[in-house]
Write a structure and sequence with these properties.
Layout (H helix, E strand, L loop, with lengths): L3 H4 L1 E2 L4 E2 L4 H11 L3 E5 L5 E6 H7 L23 E2 L4 H11 L3 E5 L5 E6 H7 L2 H12 L3
Length: about 140
């Protein structure tokens, strides 16, 4: 049985909610990722920040990314999956919430990885990928 830990990209890194968006963009470049989980002061997941969020939610509206904070763009209820969850649970979570990236946590609630569409593509069958794409990208 394939688990979330088997398909995740290990070594994901948080960005504190108080960190500036320019620092978030630098960290994304250093890590070669397009998204970072946002952690509150208690190191709990409070959102996901994407490169697109920075552009659309900050730069495009004339805000200064050296003054705007990652937590300012954290919206909605954060989603995550336990590392020992079955891949069917991963797919269900991503499909139900129409999300493309899913943080993976261990039993101590620590971030241990991230699952993206690319991770799914490397580990799932063509039929599973087709179903995922249909559900996540279908118009509501």
């Amino acid at each position: 049985m394939t688990k979330a830990a088997d398909i995740m990209h290990p070594g994901a890194q948080w960005i504190p909610a108080h960190e500036t968006l320019d620092r978030a963009a630098q960290l994304m470049r250093e890590l070669d990722v397009g998204a970072l989980p946002i952690a509150d002061e208690n190191e709990r997941l409070c959102g996901i920040l994407t490169d697109r969020d920075i552009v659309v939610g900050c730069v495009a509206v004339g805000k200064d990314p050296s003054r705007a904070r990652a937590g300012d763009l954290a919206k909605g209820t954060p989603r995550w999956i336990p590392a020992d969850a079955d891949v069917s649970d991963v797919l269900r979570e991503m499909e139900q919430h129409k999300i493309r990236r899913l943080p993976v946590i261990d039993k101590d609630k620590r971030l241990v990885g991230m699952i993206s569409e690319a991770d799914l593509a490397h580990h799932l069958s063509d039929d599973q990928i087709a179903e995922f794409v249909e559900k996540v990208y279908a118009q509501s």
